[in-house]
Design a protein that fits this description.
By secondary structure, the chain is an alpha/beta fold. The chain has 9 helices and 12 strands. The chain folds into 2 domains: about 45 residues; about 180 residues, P-loop containing nucleotide triphosphate hydrolases (Rossmann fold, 3-Layer(aba) Sandwich). Helix content is about 40%, strand content about 20%. The longest helix is centred in the first third of the chain and has 43 residues. The chain is extended and about 100 Å long. It starts with a helix and ends with a helix.
């Protein structure tokens, strides 16, 4: 009898150890999850950007041209922080293709951030003679299309990634895909436009993802387009396709292309050279190359 009780006790002890191990693991998981909850709660306590409170709207069909004017524009990313733009004065005529270059930290990305009001800069930023700081933040950002180095795609159908708010007809989607040379690929997919993408478009190659994003830019036909080294991570064929489409299909837009290599922006109408958070030169490609 004593041996039986001893065996039963040993079994209970072993089960208790397993339960304790399970309890400790679950407690550690809950602690990790609570860190995420705390982070989410912190986000809910952040103040809205001031521009969201501005109710004023621009005229209908604004911007109609894409003319950009910067007057004494300076910017810091946070109160008391270092200036990342200093007294920038610049006029970009509508329809101009501008290449922006400069060394790392020269202010190229900060110039784009100012155009997107991330955050609002000091001084005047005008698009088609409208001071953007005086109008609603969401509306002002919608007038600009951005194609960056890394394609921005999410899990969902190809149709949703091209047209999230369902404002375009299928024929327009197919036309955009044809321009970026993806029509045949999409036609071969199960579901075609309803084909499901993985998170970040992982079931497409990097070049294909970038071309999908370029198709999205073409669909929206915005008057201001920002290209932030869009061919940095693609193969040579996709790079040539991208720049050919930009030259042929974005003629009616003001295009701002950020690049480290001058060869990338040699076909631009004007070259803007940034240095130490200021404009160093703003001239034609040949003039800039001659001076350097």
């Amino acid at each position: 009898m004593l041996v039986a009780f001893a065996g039963l006790g040993l079994v209970y002890v072993l089960e208790s150890v397993e339960l304790m191990d399970y309890t400790v693991r679950k407690a550690a998981e809950v602690e990790n999850f609570m860190t995420s909850v705390e982070r989410v709660m912190k986000y809910t306590e952040l103040d809205h950007e001031p521009g969201y409170k501005v109710k004023k709207l621009p005229p209908e069909h604004w911007p109609s041209k894409g003319d950009i004017t910067l007057q004494d524009l300076s910017m810091t990313y946070y109160p008391g922080g270092p200036q990342v733009l200093r007294n920038v004065n610049l006029h970009i005529k509508d329809g101009t293709n501008v290449g922006v270059t400069g060394r790392t930290g020269a202010g190229k990305s900060s110039l784009v951030a100012a155009l997107l009001r991330m955050p609002d800069a000091q001084g005047a930023l005008m698009i088609d003679d409208i001071v953007v700081k005086d109008i609603n933040l969401q509306v002002s950002r919608r007038c600009v299309s951005v194609l960056g180095q890394r394609p921005v795609l999410f899990s969902g159908s190809l149709r949703e990634n091209l047209d999230l708010v369902e404002q375009f007809q299928d024929v327009e989607l197919w036309r955009a895909l044809e321009i970026v040379q993806l029509k045949e690929l999409v036609e071969s997919l199960e579901g075609k436009l309803d084909h499901q993408l993985l998170e970040h478009g992982a079931n497409f190659s990097v070049g294909e993802r970038q071309l999908i994003c370029l198709a999205r830019v073409l669909l929206h036909k915005r008057k201001i387009v920002i290209l932030d080294e869009p061919t940095a991570h693609v193969d040579p064929d996709t790079e040539q396709t991208t720049w050919r489409i930009v030259r042929e299909k974005l003629k009616g837009s003001t295009v701002i292309t950020i690049a480290h290599r001058l060869n990338t922006i040699k076909d631009c109408d004007m070259i803007l050279v940034m240095k130490d958070d200021e404009i160093d030169e703003f001239d034609s490609f040949n003039s800039v190359v001659t001076k350097t």
